Amino acid sequence: MRILILIPLLFLAACVTTQDESDKKSARHSAQTNTTLGQNYMDRGQYEIAMEKFKKAIAYDKTYAPAHTMLGMLYENLGETEEAGVEYKRAVQYAPKNGDVNNNYGAFLCANGKRKDAEKYFLAALDDPFYTTPAIAMANAGNCTLAQGDLDKAEKFLRQSLEYDNQLPAALLPMANVSYQKGSFLRARAFLQRYEAVGAVNEESLYLGYQIESRLGDEESAEDYRIELLERYPGSTEASGKAGRELQND
Fold first, then answer.
1. From the CB of residue 169, how many other CB atoms can be counted at a distance below 10 Å?
2. Prediction pTM value
3. What's 47's DSSP letter?
4. Exposure pattern of 56-93 as b/e (b: 16+ CB <10 Å)?
5. Other beta carbons within 10 Å of 7
6. Cα dist. 2→6, 11, 17, 112, 194 in Å?
7. Minimum mean pLDDT among 29-33, 41-45, 218-222, 239-243: which range?
8. Each residue of 76-103: pLDDT tens digit?
9. Is 168 exposed, middle or buried (0-12, 13-18, 19+ CB in 10 A)?
């Protein structure tokens, strides 16, 4: 008799579980859809609609980490740092082993002055076997550590990044900077040239090029960097500094 009673109970339990799983899958699908829509709207600068979609995604499935991450990014874009931090942290809580989630939270912490706290999240990203961009996490860790002034540790992270992707601009330019600060000017030049081959010229790279060539005694190359810096970024901090003064005195 117990067997006869247990069979229908087990059967009913199975039905409930199946229905419950179906509901969860449906909720997750809706969360994914709304997150994708929200990202598209955010990319187009339609922040109000994007906000609505991300919050709708979370309403469907509050454990869907990508929705929290995207909402965090949106809050950052809006200058609402405290709210952004809450969402990034929630994303990590719901997906503690996800590489993208950990990297994004680490990047947020570093950007907001919590550089020592950020490192563990960059390292956690590497522990995710499905994380497809470990070079990015290590480049972020290197740049974050460089901002703290720890050249040796920064170099370690950046070299790891380049082992994953030897053409990553986000690692090549800071490696040139690290090498320059360590007094290895030829190596700094080599990393900067590698960066220039794959990355976009910017204020930092031009000023660094000027500094490197000045140290190496190549006045012609230093002048080329100096002139381009002043032409492209006449109001920049670097252009108004030593490079700018020297050019104005020519």
1. 18
2. 0.83
3. H
4. bbbebbebbbbbbbbbbbbbbeeeeeeebbebbebbbe
5. 10
6. 6, 14, 22, 63, 76
7. 239-243
8. 999 999 999 999 999 999 999 999 999 9
9. buried
